[in-house]
Amino acid sequence: MKVTVLAGGVGGARFARGVREHARRSGDIERIDVVVNTGDDWWLAGVRIWPDHDSLLYTLAGENDDERGWGRRGESERVAAELQAWGVTPPWFTLGDLDLGTHLARTAWLRAGETPSQVARRLGTRWDLGVTLHPATDDEIDTHVVVEGGDRMHFQEWWTRHRASLPAIRFEHAGIAKASPAPAALAAIGAADVVLVAPSNPVVSIGPILAIPGMRDALRRAPAPVVGVSGIIGGAAVRGMADSCLAAIGVETDAAAVARHYGARSRGGLLDGWLVAEEDAASGPALTADGIPSVAVPLWMRDADTSARLAADALAHASTLRADARRA
Amino acid sequence: MKVTVLAGGVGGARFARGVREHARRSGDIERIDVVVNTGDDWWLAGVRIWPDHDSLLYTLAGENDDERGWGRRGESERVAAELQAWGVTPPWFTLGDLDLGTHLARTAWLRAGETPSQVARRLGTRWDLGVTLHPATDDEIDTHVVVEGGDRMHFQEWWTRHRASLPAIRFEHAGIAKASPAPAALAAIGAADVVLVAPSNPVVSIGPILAIPGMRDALRRAPAPVVGVSGIIGGAAVRGMADSCLAAIGVETDAAAVARHYGARSRGGLLDGWLVAEEDAASGPALTADGIPSVAVPLWMRDADTSARLAADALAHASTLRADARRA
């Protein structure tokens, strides 16, 4: 079986690691591809930073700092202090030294003319990831945020400097009208037996992937069922600041509301199925009536076991949907 | 008095520090400008490296590693190991973390469209240098070395990887035919009361400065006397691998031979005067006959005292030459 996951950063990385763990245990997954959000990417001090990709890379490589939740294990910040002394980085964004090595390598390859997909492939060879990472697009679609009062800033400034505390009016992806899905990402979607939507931020992680012209069509045409996992449990975001993002687009911080925001694939949306936490089970019948058959399972990814189980539950739900579709 | 120094890296930095020390002690130097060799500059892993400029910057800032002789005090190499793991830097060139901060800031400003002269000015504001550094040219004139057998490599590979051990046939500066002196460097030469040529490598430090079209003319037209300091003492280079470089251009490793290589300004060359070590005093009369009046003084720059004294000796020699010229 081939599994393709749409994913953002930290939550996506934990989910992808769970899928890989399930694959190792079950032995019935031959290939895992991850289509990675590029909406968080940005240029800083002349280097190209891919926060979500690198969260996936380091987590799958076992090189992430699990305590802090992001970045490299054993990280230091020697260069960052210099960059701030020179005034080329703002005080609210610190580049780790080990992380900077990745940024510099990536930037060198990009400047040499390689596409982001090619660069991701190179970055993926250093460690045995067991997963192939694909930027959702080879075009730059950096996110900007328009906040109340009309100020416009790069997503990273809103997210990292202001901790998403400035009320956002809308998110804009510069240049997205001319962007297209990366061919390798499209191929991974087209070849998948199951497409899973990770419990990542629906607005700023999954949203930018879906906003790439052609991506929604590709997902609708995919032969595989598309099953999403809620990143909202009992009305609260599992991590990150998803509530601020959902508020900006007028969606409630609620598992069912997010499912309806994605929409039923049978009615032109994204999802064939949906996984919610057990405390959100009550929304199940209404969602099923809305064309998004849902199951309630344990959603907390605490360790390898719980993450692998969540992946197994998502694949089992996809399998049921496929069987239902065959019967229909 | 305004003093302008032509200089390369480590030797040039020590000499410039000596000029500054003499200025502080004597109180009769109002301004020190240094025209810096750019022939060692190169691109590595997408960042622009200015070895000679940075040796001057760190030395004048008191931030250099005096024991090692180059780079920053308290340096570490966390990023370098990553860059090598990614394969974007060769194993024979290690970028220090603190140093990398400088490279990244510089590269960001260059990519934003600033000239090297503008960037040098910015870099010069962080510390109180007491000296203004000017790249000799705003054009890239990276040095390549053709070695016996015909192989061609970047100067840094020849110098750092091979320790100048491969016999060099010639040095080539890519793009130098279209290069021109940086306006600020020219202005510093034109406004000087004395021009000093630091005891830097005559071939790969002073040579590239002189090879910039228009630079020799500017020095010939300068109203100030031009006085050089030998980097060769008793037939041996004070530091670096000047002998390999001199051999490549067919010049003996000898203080008088280097003076003749620079040539008498009165006969179309560079020098009005020349300082040699006391052990090389015997060459004095012949050099004077060749139009390069020489004096023998202690050349070893061991500390602030000896460096300041050497600067004072060079300025005194220039003063004598000026008086002689007035009498003539």
From TrEMBL, chains A, B:
Entry keyword annotation includes Acetylation: no
InterPro entries (UniProt xref): CofD, CofD-like_dom_sf, FbiA/CofD
Asked if the record carries the keyword Transferase, the reply is yes
SUPFAM superfamilies in the cross-refs: CofD-like (SSF142338)
Highest taxon in the source lineage = Bacteria
For this UniProt entry, which segments traverse the membrane?
none
Q: Which positions carry the signal peptide feature in this UniProt record?
A: none
Listed EC numbers? 2.7.8.28
Q: Which controlled-vocabulary keywords does the entry list?
A: Magnesium, Transferase
Give the Gene Ontology MF terms in alphabetical order: LPPG:FO 2-phospho-L-lactate transferase activity; magnesium ion binding
What Pfam families does its record include?
CofD (PF01933)
Q: Which HAMAP family match?
A: CofD
- Specify the protein name: 2-phospho-L-lactate transferase
Which organism does this sequence originate in?
Microbacterium limosum
Classification from the root reads: Bacteria, Bacillati, Actinomycetota, Actinomycetes, Micrococcales
